[in-house]
Design goal:
The complex is a heterodimer of chains A (514) and B (489).
Chain A (H helix, E strand, L loop, with lengths): L14 H6 L2 H14 L5 E12 L38 H13 L3 E2 L5 E4 L9 E4 L6 E7 L5 E11 L3 E5 L10 E5 L6 E7 L6 H17 L12 E11 L9 E6 L2 H22 L5 E6 L4 E7 L9 E2 L10 H9 L5 H10 L7 H12 L3 H9 L4 H12 L3 H4 L4 H12 L5 H14 L4 H7 L7 H14 L1 H8 L5 H13 L5 H12 L1
Parallel strand pairs in A: 11-12
Antiparallel strand pairs in A: 1-9, 1-10, 2-5, 3-4, 3-14, 5-6, 6-9, 7-8, 10-11, 12-13
Helix pairs in contact in A: 3-6, 4-5, 7-8, 8-10, 9-10, 9-12, 12-13, 15-17, 15-18, 17-18
Chain B lengths: L8 H9 L5 H19 L2 E4 L1 H16 L11 E5 L26 H8 L3 E6 L33 H8 L5 E6 L5 H7 L2 E4 L19 E6 L2 H11 L29 E5 L8 H16 L3 E5 L7 H16 L17 H12 L2 H14 L5 H24 L2 E5 L15 H6 L5 H6 L3 E8 L5 E7 L5 H23 L5
Parallel strand pairs in B: 2-3, 2-4, 7-8, 7-9
Antiparallel strand pairs in B: 1-3, 4-6, 5-6, 5-10, 9-11, 10-11
Helix pairs in contact in B: 2-3, 5-6, 9-11, 9-12
The chains are: A alpha+beta (514), B alpha/beta (489).
Amino acid sequence: MSAAGTSAAGAPGTNADRANRSDRADRADRERRADTTERAEWETVVGLEVHCELKTQTKLFCGCKNAFGDEPNTNVCPVCLGLPGSLPVLNAFAVELAMRIGEALHCEVRPSSFHRKNYFYPDMPKDFQISQYDEPINVGGWLELPDGSRVGIERAHLEEDTGKTTHQGETGRIHAADYALVDYNRAGVPLVEIVSRPDIRSSAQARLYVTELRAVLVATGASDGRMEEGSLRVDANVSVRRVGAAALGTRCEVKNLNSLRSLGRAIDYEVARQVALVEATGTVVQETRHWDENAGRTVPLRSKEEAFDYRYFPEPDLVPLAPGSDWRARAAGAVGLLPSARRERLAGLLGGAPTPQQVDQVHVVVGQGLDDLVVAAVAKGAPAGLALVRAANELAADIGAALALDAGTFGSVVEMEGRGELTATQAKAVLAELLAAGGGDPAAIAAERGFEALSEGSLAAVVQGVVEAHPEEWARYSAGEEKLAGFFTGQVMRATGGKADGKAVAAELQRLRR
Amino acid sequence: MTADGSDSAAALADAVRRGERSARSVVEAALGGIAARDPELHAFLHVAADGARADADAVDEKVRAGEDPGPLAGVPVALKDNLCTRGIPTTCASRILEGWRPPYDATVVTRLRDAGAVVVGKTNLDEFAMGSSTENSCMGPTRHPMDPSRVPGGSSGGSAAAVGAGLVPLGLGSDTGGSVRQPAALCGVVGMKPTYGVVSRYGLVAFASSLDQIGPFARSVADAALLLEVIAGHDPKDSTCLDRPAPEAMRSLDVGVEGLRVGVCEELVADTAPDVSRRVREAAEDLAGTGALVEEVSVPEMRLGLSAYYLIAPAEASSNLARYDGVRYGLRVDAPDVAQMNTATRTAGFGPEVKRRIMLGTYALSAGYYDAYYGKAQRVRTLLIRAFDRVYEQFDVLIGATAPTTAFAIGERVADPLTMYLSDVCTIPSNLSGHPAISVPFGAGDDGLPVGVQVLAPALCEERMFQVAAALERLAAARARPARGEGRR
């Protein structure tokens, strides 16, 4: 599916969409253009296709486990291996999650049907993919980005994932491979493909769109949003046109964008390439291109002429899908708070205007789906600011374990730190152990590790002892060599077994120097 | 007792359930018959003798333990070799599936086993069920049980011949364009195609998914009804299988046809050989003689069926058969890269008819041709369904010939695919409409070989269809009686 093409009609968005945009968004638009468009007279036009693996227990058309990282070819059966005689049966929960995505993106959720997309590839067991074609479940919505701009959504449809091929050989490259291994654990995993309109005007906006879309997918429970595990995959349709031109330029589709960084770099590279090409030759050739992350450039994959003829036709093994209004209402009700509302809720707990640092932390926490945990911990009495910091840093670093953490447990670590019973270093250590063990009693862990914050008096004594033991360094520190503060802090930490609070040590050193 | 005097499946099962006969002895007799007769017939591609004996012993064990082994206790059944059988080779008579043993049983196989039936083997077919004579088998043709120089019909020719020769009382086939009914007619047995969705397709190796239905072969209408009741009914593994209980086909067998409105379908008579059409007209007269209201009727849309079928079926087949690529199972012909391996494997693994249909279907679905071919064929299908709906406002059932001729000679139509395709002209409309149809033996042609009369009924009217089929069976027996001087009834 492609969105940013020469055939798409007119300028992005409807008039109503544009009227709804705030002045802030218009300003943001202008700034983005000034930022990233190398030559002022060229406009970047991007449409994104995002494949999102749904967080279901089982696959789209069979009862096999939907799990990442298991032993290859263990989550397979006759259906997802496409064995002769096997037939697909649609997973109702995948449909429910697809409808949630549609609702969250303000789409029309409609009766739909499945088609077969035919092409030969070893990681596709049936040598066709079951996908939605002319009757997708969700059509025509939009996503509002944190900067106030809106990106139109063309459609968000259900389809099955393919297996995974690993080319074996010295270089790991396809053409030099001796043989290939295929893992069909991923074959038949449910996907929703979300196709944007060609409304994106810069690489920065593209990154913002994917970040916000990811947050929506996590917030609705549809996906775990892990790009690094491939549960979120992005293809970009990129074209350029002269500012003010109504018609779209010829697009190229860029594949293999495995991170936000790749997405941004690939769009910037592709725009520069296309601008140079149009200026030199007047035209861009429509083709599919591959992003080479190491080389930092896109290379041709196949031309329009080489494009597959997928021979779509209605999947005769499945019946049309027409969820009743009850089911649709249930799905809509299960969408819950969207990321913008979640960010507001979280920021509201801070009791004042958040600092820029806190705004970033709020984005991280909501983006990782940790905000419910923070809100619950704060409700149990944990200090909000500290809970936010620990969630954005320590919890987000081990997201899988963090999502399994009990709010009360997390809250009591933060509370202990807030009351000064644990230093920051100790609080992090306790959290790390809780995450590693999948839970536990924070107080018991602290006691077991001997984590009691040092009293002021004993800390002063320890610092005094360290100073006396290193007279030469102390003289240099006293003379203004500030970097030696780190040396003394380290010595104090060693002497106290890490129990001392870093800030208290710094204060004591200052006091002694004076 | 069936018309030829052999034991009916129902009688065998009763004897086994009552402990009068052991399942083992029934199965040994069947295996003995196969060993004696099949070298000439070549109805079987694989005889599962050890498994059959073990299954029979398990049935006998149940009887001894006082448990009911089910309505088909100890009855030997032959399965067309496109039905998946756990651990037993399933080849579709294609080199491309060489060596493949499915890890699972088709739903119909599970239901047969649950009913106490014993699978004795897998039968020959046209490769992937594509053909009308069982000559398109990579293992060589099956021969007609009454005349070894003739074909048994197809594509389920192996099951039809096995039942026709009396090797087994029951068989299963698949009917995509007539592949159960046509060989049944040629071999002089009963064969039926249920309403689309009445029998689960799970485990039937797909040819054309929107047309395929599994159907029974038997030597009597009653046995066919019994077998249908065992295999039909909802299956959550097949999304197109209807959520309703199996038809109660046995219930209507003795009802008779008085007052039933029977349409003699002109299109299913006009283009058939004179000796075949004569039998159909006799059947119509006999039905009228027992109280049915018989009239001629024309359904001109039926003539569009063949062309629509030869776009839809190959289109679906081209997609269904894509998976035989040498990557995961079956034949693999090694080559320097994957694409070349795919090509080499498929070139060596598929026979000419399968290749012909894959090419036809690929073309029909191509960008730019879809609307003109596949799209138009689907619209014809809709027209045909509407035409049937109109006719069934006036008639309860339609009758006609099952096949245009009696069994033809081996090799006769091989060089001319179009003539071969015409063998299915009378059966294809029911596949396109999804309606049920049954072929009942009704006398012989000038060559002495069997003729089948087909009964067509509206969707889900299997019971009414069996009601008429049973009446035809009685009428055929009545006609045969004075001529042969037999009087078994």
